[in-house]
Amino acid sequence: MDNIKYILIYLGFINIVSFVLFFIDKEKAKKERWRIQEKTLHTTSFLGGVFGSIAAMILFHHKTRKPIFVAITGLALLFNIFVAYQIYVNLF
To answer: φ, ψ for residue 61 (rounded to 5)?
Structure first.
């Protein structure tokens, strides 16, 4: 059961990181400054931060007009669901 606690802590952390990265990127976009690379945003999504990514996309209206970006985020969501299911099956 300790494993679940660590998994939840990790997921909370990575989702906060993802959310903050999207926020920073949005603010930099408004000021036409150096931006966070899309591959970095996608990487945090695939590493478990997809819910933070989606929340930030919705709240900040960031990257929502880029169909490819939205599609890759959707793939990250499916990947995260698959990984969560595999973890669940193997822990119980």
So the answer is: 50, 50
